[in-house]
C-alpha cells in the first residue's frame, strides 16, 4: 500500500487548525492566526510518529492527550487552570462534533454489514480508512461549517430566550398578555413627554380586540391623516410620534397611552404608566417567539416589592 505522507500530514494540519478555530469560536476568544497554525502544526506531528520507532506509542491515549495539551497551550496559552481546561474541553468537543458528523454520515449511507466490515477494517489497518480521503476532504469543511452555524444559531436562540419577558398591557379596561423581546436598539421616545415607546403586534388578536383598537392597529396612517376616526375615549389616548426610519427622512407612528404596562422578568415585576404603545397588525417575529418589542428603559426602574415606601 502506497502512503503519501505529505498529503496525510497536510490534511491533518489543516483539520487541526480548523478544529482549533471552532474551539476559539465556542470560547469566544480572539486568537492570532500564527498561534492557530502553531497548534495545528503540533497536532499534526503525531502523524509523523507512525513512521518512527515510537509508532507503538503514537496511538496511546496518553500520547493523544499530551498532543492535545500542547495544541491548547500553543493556541490559547495558559492564564489559569480554569482557562486552560475550558479550552481543552472545547477542543475535544469540536473534535467529537466534527468526527461524529463525518462518521455518522458515512455509515448512514452503508448497509449494516458493510458498516461493520469497514469498522473492523479500520481497526486492523493503520491507514486503511473506512472513510475515503475524498469524503473526508469534502465532508470535513462542510461538517465544520454546519457545526459552527448550528452553534451560532443556538447561541442566538439562547440570547433571545434570555431577553424574552412576559408583558401585560391594560388600555381602557382591556388587558392583554403577550410575550415580549427586550430590544436594546429601540431608543424611541415621545419627544414631548419623554415616555419610551414599545411596539405590539396584534396580527393574531384582531378578532378578539375592541373594534377601536383593531382600527388603530390596522389603519394608523388613516387616523393620522384624518381619514378615519375613533371614539373620544380612545382619541384622548392617542399620540403621534415622529420616528426616524432607515431610507426615509421621517415617519409618523400612532401610539396609545395605556393605563399601565406590567413586565415580568424572571421573578421581578416592573409596572409603569409612563409608556406609550404602538399597536400594529404586522408580524414582528417570523417564528412567533414574541409579539411585542419592549423598550429597555422599562426595566430600568425599581421592581415591584423592592420599592421603599415613602415616610
TrEMBL record:
<dbReference type="InterPro" id="IPR005081">
    <property type="entry name" value="SpoIIGA"/>
</dbReference>
<feature type="transmembrane region" description="Helical">
    <location>
        <begin position="62"/>
        <end position="78"/>
    </location>
</feature>
<feature type="active site">
    <location>
        <position position="183"/>
    </location>
</feature>
<keyword id="KW-0812">Transmembrane</keyword>
<feature type="transmembrane region" description="Helical">
    <location>
        <begin position="34"/>
        <end position="56"/>
    </location>
</feature>
<feature type="transmembrane region" description="Helical">
    <location>
        <begin position="6"/>
        <end position="27"/>
    </location>
</feature>
<keyword id="KW-1133">Transmembrane helix</keyword>
<feature type="transmembrane region" description="Helical">
    <location>
        <begin position="90"/>
        <end position="110"/>
    </location>
</feature>
<dbReference type="Pfam" id="PF03419">
    <property type="entry name" value="Peptidase_U4"/>
</dbReference>
<dbReference type="GO" id="GO:0006508">
    <property type="term" value="P:proteolysis"/>
</dbReference>
<dbReference type="GO" id="GO:0004190">
    <property type="term" value="F:aspartic-type endopeptidase activity"/>
</dbReference>
<protein>
    <submittedName>
        <fullName>Sigma-E processing peptidase SpoIIGA</fullName>
    </submittedName>
</protein>
<dbReference type="GO" id="GO:0030436">
    <property type="term" value="P:asexual sporulation"/>
</dbReference>
<keyword id="KW-0472">Membrane</keyword>
<feature type="transmembrane region" description="Helical">
    <location>
        <begin position="130"/>
        <end position="147"/>
    </location>
</feature>
Amino acid at each position: 500500500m502506497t502512503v503519501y505522507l505529505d498529503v496525510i500530514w497536510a490534511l491533518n494540519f489543516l483539520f487541526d487548525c480548523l478544529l482549533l478555530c471552532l474551539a476559539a469560536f465556542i470560547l469566544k476568544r480572539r486568537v492570532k492566526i500564527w498561534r492557530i497554525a502553531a497548534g495545528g502544526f503540533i497536532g499534526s506531528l503525531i502523524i509523523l510518529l507512525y513512521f518512527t520507532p515510537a509508532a507503538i506509542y503514537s496511538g496511546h491515549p496518553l500520547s493523544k492527550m499530551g498532543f492535545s495539551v500542547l495544541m491548547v497551550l500553543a493556541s490559547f496559552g495558559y492564564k489559569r487552570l480554569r482557562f486552560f481546561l475550558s479550552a481543552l474541553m472545547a477542543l475535544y468537543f469540536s473534535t467529537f462534533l466534527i468526527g461524529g458528523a463525518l462518521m455518522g454520515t458515512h455509515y448512514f449511507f452503508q448497509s449494516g454489514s458493510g458498516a461493520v466490515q469497514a469498522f473492523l477494517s479500520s481497526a486492523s489497518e493503520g491507514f486503511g480508512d473506512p472513510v475515503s480521503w475524498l469524503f473526508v476532504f469534502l465532508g470535513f469543511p462542510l461538517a465544520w461549517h454546519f457545526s459552527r452555524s448550528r452553534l451560532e444559531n443556538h447561541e442566538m436562540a439562547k440570547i433571545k430566550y434570555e431577553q424574552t419577558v412576559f408583558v401585560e398591557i391594560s388600555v381602557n379596561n382591556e388587558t392583554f398578555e403577550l410575550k415580549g423581546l427586550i430590544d436594546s436598539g429601540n431608543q424611541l421616545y415621545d419627544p414631548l413627554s419623554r415616555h419610551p415607546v414599545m411596539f405590539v403586534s396584534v396580527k393574531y388578536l384582531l378578532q378578539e380586540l375592541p373594534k377601536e383598537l383593531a382600527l388603530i392597529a390596522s389603519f394608523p396612517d388613516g387616523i393620522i391623516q384624518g381619514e378615519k376616526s375613533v371614539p373620544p375615549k380612545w382619541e384622548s389616548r392617542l399620540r403621534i410620534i415622529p420616528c426616524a426610519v432607515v431610507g426615509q427622512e421621517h415617519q409618523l407612528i400612532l401610539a396609545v397611552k395605556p393605563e399601565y404596562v406590567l413586565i415580568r422578568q424572571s421573578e421581578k415585576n416592573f409596572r409603569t404608566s409612563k409608556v406609550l404603545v404602538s399597536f400594529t397588525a404586522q408580524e414582528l417575529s417570523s417564528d412567533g417567539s414574541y409579539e411585542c418589542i419592549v423598550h429597555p428603559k422599562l426595566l430600568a426602574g425599581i421592581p415591584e416589592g423592592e420599592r421603599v415606601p415613602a415616610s
